[in-house]
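Need C-alpha cells for this chain, all 395 residues.
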Amino acid sequence: MKKFLIAIALCCSMASCIKDEAPNKECDIESAWIEGAEYEDLFYQTTEMRKENISSGDTYIIFTVKSMLSLPSQIPVNFKITEGATIEPASGQPQDFTKGPLVYTVTSQDGQWERTYNVLFREAAMPVQLFSFENVEVRTETTILGAENQMDVFYEILPPSEGGTEQDYKKYCWASGNAGAAILKSGAKPEDFPTYSIPDGKEGKAVCLTTQGTGALGQLFKKPIAAGNLFLGEFVVEYVSSDPLKSTLFGVPNPKEPVRITGWYKYKRGEKFTDMDMKEYTDRQDEASIYAVYYRNCDEQGERYVLDGYAVADLDKLTDNPQIYKVARVASLPPTDTWQQWEMFFEGKDVPDDLVATNGFNLALVFSSSINGAQFEGAVGSTLCIDEVEVFYEK
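Here are the C-alpha cells for all 395 residues:
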C-alpha cells in the first residue's frame, strides 16, 4: 500500500507544466488558429492555419505562409488559453503582422502569473542543406517542483526577412527529449542532459547524445534509461509521464525531395544492455540509430498528419504506413573514437512534384544513442556524436 501511495504522489509530481499545479495559476496558450476562407490562399496547406498542442515550453508561435508580400495588414489570430486566464491583445482581434512578431501576454486567473508569446508569420524557407550544429543556446527551464535546469537547444538560421529581427531568423526545428529528462533533474547543466553540445566536433561544434540512467524514480515507472536523441520536429513535454511515445513529433515541412544524406559520427557502446525492467542481457549489445523519413503531412481527409513515436516504433515496418513515401537508414554504426563518415539513400515510392512544391511533405531526421531507447532498452553510457550532416535534394 505504501508503494502504491508513493507511486500516485510521483505521478502527480511528474505531470508536466503549470497546468497540473495549484488552480488559478495557469497561463498557457494551448492552441492558435486563423479562421476564414479569405485567408486560405495565404497558406500552402489549410492545416498550417492551426497550431495545436502548443508545448508549455514554447515562446514562439509561427505561421508559415507562401509570401509575406501578400500578407494582409490585419489578420485575426484566435487562441485557446488555459481556463480562467486572459490574453492581451484579445483573441480574434485583427492585428498587423507585416512588420514582424507581436507579443501576446497571458495572465493567470489570480493575476499572479504571466507568460509572453511571440506570434509571427514567415515565408516558407528553402530547406537547410548543411547542419553543422554550430547554433546552440543555453536555455534555463524551471521544473514544476521549482528547480532550475540549464540545457542546450539547437537551432538553424533562416535567410533574413524584410522587417524581421535577429530572433525571427532562428528556426527551432531541432528537438530532443531533454525537457522530459529535466523532470528528474535539479540544478543540472547542459552536459548533464542526454543531448548536449561539445566543442570538438569534426568542424567546430558538434552534438553529443548519451544514454543515461534515470535513477530509482525512473525505474519505478519502468523508464530506467533516457537515450540521447535529436530530431527535426517537436517534443511535447506534457505527454512524457502519461504517454511518452506521443511526446515525440517527427518532421518539419520540406519543399524539396531529399535523395541522400551524409554526415560524420563517433560512437561508443555502453557496457550493460538492459530492458525496461533493468534485466541485463549479456547476449545483446546496444546500437546507435540514424534514419530519415519523407512523408505526406496531410491525410486523405485533409487533416494534419505528424509521425509520432508510435509510427516509428518498428523501423522495419515504416513503409507499411501509407503516409510515408521514402525512408533512409544507416545500416550500421560501428564503434569508433575517431570521426567517420556515414551515408544513407532514400528509397520508396514516387513523390508527386506538385505536393512537394506546396509544402505537402515533411522531412524527419532522427539520431539516437540507443536504437530501442523509445522502449527504454539500451546501455547506459552509449554515446553517439554527430556533426556536418548534409542533405542532398532532387534537382
